[in-house]
Amino acid sequence: MSNAILETVQNLSESPLADVLGAGLQSPLIDGTPVRYVNLDYAASTPALAQVNDYVQSVLPYYASVHRGAGYASQISTSLYENARRIVRAFVGGREDDAVIFTRNTTDSLNLLAGCLPEDGEVLYLDLEHHANLLPWLDRPHRGLVAADTVEATLAAVEEELASGGISLLAVTGASNVTGEVLPIARFASAAHAHGARIVVDAAQLAPHRRLDLVRDGIDYVAFSGHKLYAPFGAGVLVGRPDWLDEGTPHLAGGGAVKTVKVDSVSWATGPARHEGGSPNVLGAAALAHATEVLAALDAKDWLEHESLLRTSLVEGLAALPGVTVHRIFTDSTDAIGVVNFSVHGYDAGLVAAYLSAEHGVGLRDGKFCAHPLLKRLGLPSGSLRASLGLGSRQDDVDRLLTGLTSLLRNGLGTDYVVDAGRWVPAVETRSFPEWAPPTPGTAGAAPCVTD
């Protein structure tokens, strides 16, 4: 590798790929030392892109009612909101007639779709799904399939179920929120269509890491969330074929979702309005749409390389630590986003997370990740740890986590911890909080932060 190429590769891993808010946030340790906060919890909620924040601030003065307002600001807000649909549809490579419905989050989107399914078909899903792509189907005719140890065997099992007939929708994640493994969505879509079914993809984890293309991959519906896509302003989206949506149960019964209303009857609208009753989240939709524009403008090669370098460094570093196990679903998976799941032998996952936060300023996630069936099958009924990377991540973040774990394995805990309100916390909490921030459970004794 030439020196120029080597330098480029190093820069891709040592520097953030985009500016995010909170990148310089200082986190106090339990001994009072301030350190740069390391955010390794992107899979739960991403920080806001600086560009998204700037965009929201620029449009905020024009915020007003939409669709029925004659005023200048109202017309601008309406244009902003409706144009967001076009932007999001383009980001996912949607068909020209695909509906784009703004919701609260991925869970909301999938619940909306559940109310629009044909009466005569079953939903098929895998046991590795996030609860958002499992629970909405339980009130419908459904089949839950336990995934095999390999992607190929799992795909074969799905095809066998589809071939047995009676399935109208295959619901599958684009990438596991537990291990980051990416599923071959195009192949699942092809199998569904071959047997007369449609496919919906939970892309809450995939969309922030990979470009989607509904037409190329044969996806009928896709759902994802702004808060996982660097636009944490409370919006999600469902994009897909309009026929089921136009016939389905209106998701929110209220103003704007109707054609006409009488005292004891209603004629519902079609299109996105049918499911967007009430005043919509205009700024949330605008922020989500602008975040997709920022992501679409990234160099695809750099984006993938940045994440791949960091993930590889993290996985290899964890695997080298005695007593640390990296978990995966499939033995033959070859692609994964920047999400890594692991456990530390002899330590409760919640205790490790509390230790890393209090003694090293590293934030990551512990628990069952809203994927209880999968965690149980992986032999982790009490939970595990998840470190997740994103556009603002850099090699130093990975190094800080590995350093913290190395210290734990060599020296043990540096302070005492107790369980309070179901969470591990330092027995004596000394870290301060901003004056405006109320203490969280287990931190009632924390001193307020004094600001200049």
TrEMBL record:
This is Selenocysteine lyase/Cysteine desulfurase. Its cofactor is pyridoxal 5'-phosphate. Belongs to the class-V pyridoxal-phosphate-dependent aminotransferase family. Csd subfamily. The keyword Lyase applies. Keywords: Lyase, Pyridoxal phosphate. PROSITE patterns: AA_TRANSFER_CLASS_5. Residues 38-401 form the Aminotransferase class V domain. It comes from Arthrobacter subterraneus.
